[in-house]
Design brief:
203 residues, alpha+beta, C8orf32 fold, seven-stranded antiparallel β-sheet, two-stranded parallel sheet, 7 helices, 9 strands, globular
Amino acid sequence: MSKYGFDKGETLVLKTLKTPEKIQHFLDHDIAYNKEPDGETIRSPRRVLRDKVAHCLEGALLAAAALRVHGFPPLLLDLESVHDDDHVLAVFRLQGCWGAVAKSNYSGLRFREPVYRNLRELVMSYFESYFNTSREKTLRNYSRPVQLSRFDGMGWMTSEADLWLISEHLARIPHVPLLRNGAGRRLTRVDDRMFAAGSAGRA
């Protein structure tokens, strides 16, 4: 049993995910996208490893756990939208710059290299790729990083219960607006090529 409560097999899997890029590859290729209606499950990393399925929050929790095993603080950042689902990232810093790992049904809402000087830069890198099926660009606000160690008392990494408390916390905390002066009313629709590229591989 590891210090985080994972068994030998789980620990072995997580230890092979030595870099953020390997964690993203694992989410993309070994974990199916969870197509259950929103709110049906919020699996812990243990359950994601066992069931091999995750939506964005479940994937971000697994990514945060894997990052923690390799010495990063387990941090989640919530992206808030209009006319669309919110999205959750596992964020990390290398040499003072921010990057992200994420599970998404849209190709443009996943990994970000750690090249962003601050969180706003990182979040804005998702703006053009964050759209709904009506081709509206929907990203509006973002949270500050949430340190998941605050939930260690509930055993978030290995819990068999759904992690509603984490979801509720992300929804409740303050979010920073991205757009000002009515910019959201002047946005153009996503064109055919961008829509096709962002929708590639959707489950």
